[in-house]
């Protein structure tokens, strides 16, 4: 695989306090963000959060009510969609049904008035790049979903845009195809080196593909960071619950110094976290949060690396390589979910069994 | 295997039984009169009776007599003019309703477009007489505003009035298929075209129009085929100059009692319409296939 070239610090897209109103409905509420040149950037959020609207303001299909959208340093306010240095892959792919694959790919080149041979060569190159070499003469309506997706990509990339916009491009594909296309898209992005902006509601897709992700809720960016930070250090319960699974146990802050916060957490007892483990989230009560995989189920003879608690198994979901357990830690009201890799020679725990769970305060997040 | 074949046979029998009533109906009411017409066209006209002698004389007369040829040619020209005018005027209406009317109001608009159908065809033709006549609405209005000093005489009882009346009468038949074709166009295709650098006008030419072609082709055929045989409009507003082939056929059948020549004229007109339609379909074929 082609190694990722380092992302420059040059901003490619800038949103400055962008607002969008549909009548009384406030669709975008003060979006400010910068997408860097060569970056694979994702807009992630549930449906209706404004992510597609934001993407369409870059493409020029959606005007904005307030604020500024800059592409490559240029204010896009008076630039119509057909004059912008961006190209889009639509959710429905928008392949022209009355044209062949080659005619679809060449659609945007007409204005360049290339000699016929050059045109054919560039179309073939673009088709080769997306793995559709030799498909040029096919009728567009005879393609499968994955092939349409590739034609849409070739059609946009052949114009060498500064930014490629992708509006939920994988949502119409089946799981296997989707995973394959994820890898393809990463490969393509590294190959062409242009800025990709992807809209998705699939957190896994965003984590797999993106350099950075903006998580959006209700027209606002809730958190903007790289995938790992987003997963390990979500800045609010809402982000934590949207990205993967997060367990919460009610907690209370006992004392606080500059270097440590002492907490009394239900089930875990007294523990200390560092200030960088604290997420300020005024919306909900104080709680400690943790991912399912940071807990370990201890077998007989094993001792916890750090600390351990006793719990009861309340649900077992077997996935082959993994098993998900819902266990209730003694002294807590609700079960928490933990995941364990299934290792040869270690039986899967049964429902109702008493187990010991190893945990570490260093992997917790304190939401307050 | 045998059982499956038996089942298929039973299914085929059931199917035949189901289509039998409409098939018989179609045979009796459509095919039989048509066959009768074909037979008549090859018989000889006697005085007050039809002589059962096979002849091509009727067709010879129909195709060589300058009077019949002239009327046939005029019918063709009139219906082509009507078709062009109707489709050209219908397209913007269909486009407006499809692209610029709120989805919730579209059905109201379609409903309004069909309002002319609430009155009889005859009354609508008569109304055009009122509008276009020597002392009609149009002349009176233009005189009142001082735009003309005496009534215009080229409005009624000629080819113009036939074209105007027919174009109005067939407008909904052209609007509806074009509207349906436009409705089926995925709007993201238009955005995609703009995204790929084309202006709205070029997008119309490269995407909207080609994708609307099935509707346009349907509209052309729906207007062209019946107008060439229209009888009422040329009879009422055409005057002597606006006569069309249907008036000629009526003349042969009911006035001159010449069934064989009338039939030959009718069959000839049908043949011409069929040939022109086939040629038209041949030329527009590429727009009709390949779209879903």
Topology:
The complex is a heterodimer of chains A (368) and B (292).
Chain A (H helix, E strand, L loop, with lengths): L10 E12 L2 E12 L3 E5 L6 H9 L6 E6 L2 E2 L10 E4 L11 H5 L10 H14 L15 H13 L5 E5 L7 H18 L2 E6 L2 H7 L2 E6 L2 E6 L1 H6 L4 H6 L4 E10 L4 E5 L3 E5 L4 E2 L7 E4 L5 E3 L8 E12 L3 E8 L6 E6 L12 E6 L5 E3 L1
Parallel strand pairs in A: 3-8, 3-9, 6-7, 7-8, 14-21
Antiparallel strand pairs in A: 1-2, 1-4, 4-5, 9-10, 11-12, 11-15, 12-13, 15-21, 16-20, 17-18, 17-20, 18-19
Chain B lengths: L1 H40 L2 E2 L4 E2 L5 H8 L1 H35 L5 H8 L7 H12 L4 H8 L14 H25 L3 H9 L4 H29 L3 H6 L7 H11 L3 H30 L4
Antiparallel strand pairs in B: 1-2
Helix pairs in contact in B: 1-12, 2-12, 3-7, 3-9, 5-7, 7-9, 8-9, 9-12, 11-12
What does this structure look like?
The complex is a heterodimer of chains A (368) and B (292). Chain A has 368 residues and is α+β, with helices and mostly antiparallel strands. Chain A folds into two domains: 11-232, P-loop containing nucleotide triphosphate hydrolases (Rossmann fold, 3-Layer(aba) Sandwich), CATH 3.40.50.300; 246-368, OB fold (Dihydrolipoamide Acetyltransferase, E2P), CATH 2.40.50.140. Chain A is built from eight helices and 21 strands. In chain A, β1 and β2 (25-36) form a beta hairpin. With 292 residues, chain B is mainly alpha-helical. Helix content of chain B is 76%, strand content 1%. In chain B, strands 1-2 form a two-stranded antiparallel sheet. In chain B, α5 packs across α7, α7 crosses α9 (200-228) and α11 (245-255) packs antiparallel against α12 (259-288). Chain B is globular, with a radius of gyration of 24 Å. At the A-B interface, β6 of A face α8 and α9 of B.
